[in-house]
C-alpha cells in the first residue's frame, strides 16, 4: 500500500499540473461517470493529502476524495498532448487539460465529497509527519493510554496518519525499540525519537520517490540535498523490512517476522529491546 510520502508527492504533482485550470473530468471505465459529471467544468483549486488520503478541491464546494488502497495508482503525465490520449487499462477517473492528463486506476475509494464530509475524514486521522501543522502530542495522548503495542499503534491511521508497514519496521529498528512494547509502557522520549525520525525521513521519500531509512542512503541523500542536488537512488534497501531469516545488519542474528495489525512486521529480537 502506498505510504504517506507517495500521496504527498501525488498531491503536489496534481496541484502543479491542474490548480487554476478547469479540467475535463471523465470516467473511461464508467464506474465513476456520475461523480465525474459533478466535477467536470469546475475550476480545480488545489490538491492536498493527509496520511494516505488524497483530496482535490474544485470550485463550488466540490471535492474529490481518493484512497489508493493496496493496488491503486494515480499517474500525472507532464507532456503536452496535441491529440486524444488513449485510456490504457481500467481508468476510473481522468483529469484532462490541453497540457496534462492524470489517470486514476484501481483505487479503494473514489468519491465526490462535500466540505463537511472532508472534515469528517480529517477529524478521524491522526497527525501526519509530513504536515507542518501536525501535533505529535495528539498522537502521544492516544499512545500513552493504550494497551496495544507500538507496532500496532503505528499502523493505526487514527493515531498517526501516513505511516505504513515499511516505515513502521524500519523506524523501530533504527532506534532499537521493541515493536511489542505497549503504548502505555513506551517512554515519551522514545515516542519523540520515532516522530522526529519520521519528520526527517518521510520528506526524503517525497524528494526521491523512495523510502530512505538505511543509514548509508540517509547520508547520501543528506549530502546531495546539502549541495543543492536532487538525489538519485538506484535501488531501495532496508535494514529489516522483508529481510526475514537474513542477518541483522547490526548484530548478525536472524531478522524475525510476525503478522501485526494485518501486515508482516519485521524486527531483530536481539537488538530491539528498548522501550
What is the top-level CATH class of the largest domain? Answer: Mainly Alpha
- Output mean pLDDT: 94
Radius of gyration: 20 Å
Q: List the secondary-structure elements in sequence, H or E.
A: HEHEEEEEEEHHHHHHEE
Distance between the termini: 28 Å
- Low-pLDDT sequence parts: none
Count of individual domains:
2
Shape label: globular
Major β-sheet annotation: 4 strands, antiparallel
Strand order of the largest sheet: 1-6-7-5
Number of helices, counting only DSSP H or I runs of 4 residues or more: 8
Total strand count, please?
10
At the third CATH level, what is the topology name of the largest domain?
Helicase, Ruva Protein, domain 3
CATH second-level architecture of the largest domain: Orthogonal Bundle
Classify the beta-strand content into a percent band: 15-25%
Record the SSE blueprint.
Layout: H1 4-18, E1 24-26, H2 33-39, E2 44-50, E3 53-58, E4 62-67, E5 73-77, E6 91-96, E7 101-105, E8 109-113, H3 115-124, H4 136-143, H5 150-153, H6 165-174, H7 188-208, H8 215-226, E9 255-260, E10 263-268
Task: Describe this entry's structure for a reader.
The chain is of the alpha+beta class and 275 residues long. The protein folds into two domains: 4-124, N-terminal domain of MutM-like DNA repair proteins (Alpha-Beta Barrel); 136-268, Helicase, Ruva Protein, domain 3, CATH 1.10.8. The protein contains eight helices and ten strands. It has helices at 4-18, 33-39, 115-124, 136-143, 150-153, 165-174, 188-208, 215-226, and strands at residues 24-26, 44-50, 53-58, 62-67, 73-77, 91-96, 101-105, 109-113, 255-260, 263-268. The strands form three sheets. Strands 1-6-7-5 form a four-stranded antiparallel beta sheet. A four-stranded antiparallel beta sheet has the order 2-3-4-8, sandwiched between helices. Strand 2 (44-50) and strand 3 form a beta hairpin. Helix 1 crosses helix 7 (188-208). The longest helix has 21 residues, at 188-208.
Amino acid at each position: 500500500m502506498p505510504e504517506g510520502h507517495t500521496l504527498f508527492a501525488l498531491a503536489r504533482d496534481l496541484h502543479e499540473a491542474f490548480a487554476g485550470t478547469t479540467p475535463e473530468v471523465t470516467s473511461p471505465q464508467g464506474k465513476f461517470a456520475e461523480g465525474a459529471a459533478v466535477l467536470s467544468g469546475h475550476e480545480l483549486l488545489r490538491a492536498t493529502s493527509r496520511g494516505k488520503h488524497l483530496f482535490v478541491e474544485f470550485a463550488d464546494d466540490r471535492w474529490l476524495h481518493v484512497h489508493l488502497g493496496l493496488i491503486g495508482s494515480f499517474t500525472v503525465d507532464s507532456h503536452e498532448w496535441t491529440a486524444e490520449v488513449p485510456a490504457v487499462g481500467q481508468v476510473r477517473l481522468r483529469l484532462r487539460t490541453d497540457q496534462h492528463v492524470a489517470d486514476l486506476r484501481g483505487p479503494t475509494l473514489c468519491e465526490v465529497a462535500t466540505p463537511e464530509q472532508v472534515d469528517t475524514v480529517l477529524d478521524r486521522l491522526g497527525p501526519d509527519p509530513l504536515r507542518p501543522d501536525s501535533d505529535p502530542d495528539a498522537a502521544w495522548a492516544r499512545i500513552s493510554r493504550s494497551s496495544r503495542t507500538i507496532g500496532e499503534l503505528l499502523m493505526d491511521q487514527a493515531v498517526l496518519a501516513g505511516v505504513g508497514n515499511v516505515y513502521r519496521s524500519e523506524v523501530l529498528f533504527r532506534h532499537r525499540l521493541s515493536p511489542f512494547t505497549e503504548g502505555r509502557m513506551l517512554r515519551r522520549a522514545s515516542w519523540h525519537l520515532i516522530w522526529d525520525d519520521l519528520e526527517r525521513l518521510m520528506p526524503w521519500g517525497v524528494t526521491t520517490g523512495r523510502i530512505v531509512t538505511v543509514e548509508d542512503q540517509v547520508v547520501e541523500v543528506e549530502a546531495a540535498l546539502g549541495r543543492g542536488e536532487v538525489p538519485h537512488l538506484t535501488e531501495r534497501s532496508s535494514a529489516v523490512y522483508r529481510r526475514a531469516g537474513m542477518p541483522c545488519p547490526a548484530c548478525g542474528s536472524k531478522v524475525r517476522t510476525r503478522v501485526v495489525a494485518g501486515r508482516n512486521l519485521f524486527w531483530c529480537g536481539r537488538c530491539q529491546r528498548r522501550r
